[in-house]
Amino acid sequence: MIEAGGQTKRYSAVIARQPSFRVPRRPPGRRDAVVGAGTVVVATGTLSRGESGPGPARPAIATPPTASAAPSGTSSPPAPPSQGQTPSLALDLDDAYTVTATLRDGIAVTAVHASGKLVIPFDPPLGAEERATLSVSYLGQPPAAAALDFWQHGAGYAATSVAEPFLARTFWPCVDAPDDKAVATVTATVPAGYVVASAGLVTSTALPDGRIRSTWRLPQAISTYLVSLNVANYAVVEDTYTALDGRTMPIRSYLMPENAAANAPRLAAMKNHIAVLASLYGEYPFVDTKYGIVSSEFSGGMEHPTMTSIGENILSNVPRDITILLVHELSHQWWGDKVTMRTWDDIWLNEGFATYSEVLYLEKAQGRNPGATLRTSYDDGLYGGQLAQAVVADPADPFKYTGAVYDKGGWFLHMLRRLVGDDAFFSGLRAYGDAHAWGTATRGELRALFEQRTSLDLKQFWDQWLETQFRPTFRATYRTSADASTVTLTVTQTQGHTVVHPVAGPNDKPFYVFPLVVQLTYLDGTTSDVTVVPTDFTTTVAVPNPTRKFVAGIALDPGSDILKIVESTGPA
Ligand SMILES: [Zn+2]
User: Fold this and answer.
1) Distance, CA 221 to ligand 1 centroid (Å)?
2) What would be the CATH architecture of the domain defined by 7-233?
3) Averaged in consecutive runs of 10 residues, what is the pLDDT profile of the chain (572 residues)?
4) 473-571 maps to which CATH number?
5) If you measure from the C-alpha of residue 397 to the centroid of ligand 1, how many angstroms do you get, rounded to a whole number?
6) Residue 312 C-alpha to ligand 1 middle, in angstroms?
7) What is residue 198's three-state secondary structure?
8) Topology (CATH) of 339-467
9) From CA 369, how far away is CA 389, in angstroms rounded?
10) Angle at CA 254, nearest 5°, toward 240 and 172?
11) What is the pTM of this model?
């Protein structure tokens, strides 16, 4: 996601929806394990906003009948739950809504909706391999900060949803956690002239009353914050992406009709964006369905799977170059949508990856040096080197420390690339994508994967860049021996903090450890590079100087491959 602020207008509307999704059920005490069959939950409902006098016709988005899935097949009398059984399911649903009916396999059950939870009892308890279909009907006015917005567009209305991070529950009942991935189907019925846009591929039916019912299906499991719904009088713009293996995939974008032609160059560039990222990370993850963008009432971009939302204020500002925004959101299809952070405190696994994807795109498509790009465009240079707090985000507000989550996260990947080399880095990223495809991952799992593939102990590296706030500060001196046969380099780390090690290890260092390139410039203008790996806060190395040329000056990290501050360099 990239959010650039901006006010969202809210208007009255009526909507009902029928998301159907699978809820993986876990045995007690094991949050990370999915055992047994999932439960199919089908929700239907009606949302309404307060009416405020006459206005343009509102889209009435009505619901189809509730779908059903495999019945539980059990008719045993109520019994206390035993090992492996689930006595109830708790869904997140904002208290603004009134639940009017909850059904289990078509039979009404008494659910309790309070404090943002809808607790649905299973009586008898759900068995370990048992399936059930739940239907939740609900209505009400969305809370002020809801995922779903209705906004005026021209003489009509439009609807936009952006649920990241915690707003899916303001939109539909679900287990609103990123690790609870599910296959989602979104159905909406709209008046003639309106178009529904969401993830995957659509089938639409004209109803006898003239309305259009559209059902969007995405085969892959996604996190609830990625489920989206967009409605407007969109113009659909088609293009084609040719995959690395020659397959073709539609690029289908939903734009406001008045802006569609003017955005043609932006849309045409997207197939090249996909090709560049596919060459880096492996094929576009949803190549079997589509990619596209959709105009939304959101001042930024949001990586909804196969259908990135881009703010209408951006799409209507045609002179603006939005290449980096488009590449950022596209990269989330790999990093965020296909592989999702397991918990929000690893949001940098989404945003740091997307940020470095911007840098990599500029390197690959425009030949820009990635270190220079990071130094000039991805370092806010805050006093003392504090980008923000640690990269590990505030769980109550994952996007609180955006400088760390986005920029330091991007720097981290660049430094890892420089440490392990391009081959290990890019093959490692692909292996990470494969290992956690359609699932979730943690920074610890990323480390384990790179350690396994490189045989390096990466604990110090992970700790110093991910667990530690700030960045190192350097002072460096040089001294040439009297006969000029040796140059002595001294590199001192002068930062006012030590490296944090949340878990102690035998090789932990309180200072930063990495290969630091020191460039020597000789009096005749020639240069040579020396790599110094710090062994303490002050590290001194004697460098042979066979040419016996005198050194005129030194530079630390001339390629800008390390996030750092250089306090001073000069003769000892
Ligand atoms: Zn992002």
Assistant:
1) 19
2) Sandwich (2.60)
3) 48 28 29 25 36 35 30 41 85 96 95 97 91 92 88 93 95 94 94 97 97 97 97 98 97 97 98 98 98 94 98 96 97 98 95 98 98 93 72 85 91 98 98 98 98 98 94 96 96 96 97 97 96 98 95 97 96 96
4) 2.60.40.1840
5) 15
6) 18
7) coil
8) Neutral Protease; domain 2 (1.10.390)
9) 27
10) 120
11) 0.87
